[in-house]
Amino acid sequence: MHTKLAYTIRIAILASVAAILMVLESPVLFMPGFLKLDFSEIPAIIGAFALGPLAGCLIVLLKNLIHVSSTQTAGIGEMANFLVGTFLVVPAAFVYKLRKNRTGAMAALVTGTLSMTLAAAVLNYWVLIPLYQVALKFPPEAIVNMGRAANPLIVDLKTFIVFAIIPFNLFKGIIVSTITMMVYKKVSSVLH
Question: Among 12, 29, 105, 127, which residue has the least CB neighbours within 10 Å?
Fold first, then answer.
């Protein structure tokens, strides 16, 4: 019983930190204004490394459930963040579980970043952007135009994915991974 309670408390604390970090978002140069960088996956990765893939997934879910109360996207943005964040955290956790050392952590974070980037491209093209169109009456042309304003290479939905979604997620993965590598060992002893 004590172990389950400690596990639950750790997840709750990390999810709370992630929810706070999710609010502290900032735009990225050369990207459409709605693609904003936040560091909320860092507590999720730390939790996944220390407590396992399920813990990481729960942290990503909880931070989005907390954030949905202040949504401007009818929950679509939070669903997108949950799906894409899960594709970063869960594969990274499984790879790290095989080799719990610095090399394993680097391999895990590279795997998670590539998984997240691929998932973001596929999900945005086939699910999320069409969902914005249906639920919020936000036409793909408006998304493309916002992308073109930031990057003239964006001329349609496919180039939006190639020149906005993919670079943004690679950039986010690199930044989140770098910070995770710098702080994980310092906080992991507290979580164990």
Answer: 29
User: Count of alpha carbons within 13 Å of 139, Cβ hemisphere only?
Assistant: 4
Looking at residues 116-136, what average pLDDT do you find? Answer: 94
DSSP string, 30-92: TS-TT-EE--THHHHHHHHHHH-HHHHHHHHHHHHHHHGGG-SSTTHHHHHHHHHHHHHHHHH
Q: Which tokens go with 123?
A: 């999900």
The alpha carbons of the chain give a radius of gyration, in whole angstroms, of 17
Sorted by where each begins, the domain ranges of the chain are: 2-23+35-191
Residue type, 140: P
Tokens of 15: 């999810």
Q: Return the SS3 of 124.
A: helix
Q: If one looks up domain 2-23+35-191 in CATH, what number appears?
A: 1.10.1760.20
Instruction: Name the burial class of residue 56, with classes exposed (0-12), middle (13-18) and buried (19+) by CB atoms within 10 angstroms of its CB.
Output: buried
Residue 88 region by backbone torsions, left for phi larger than 0, else alpha for psi between -120 and 50, else beta: alpha
- The reply to whether the predicted model has a pTM over 0.70 is yes
Only one residue has tokens 């459930």, namely 65
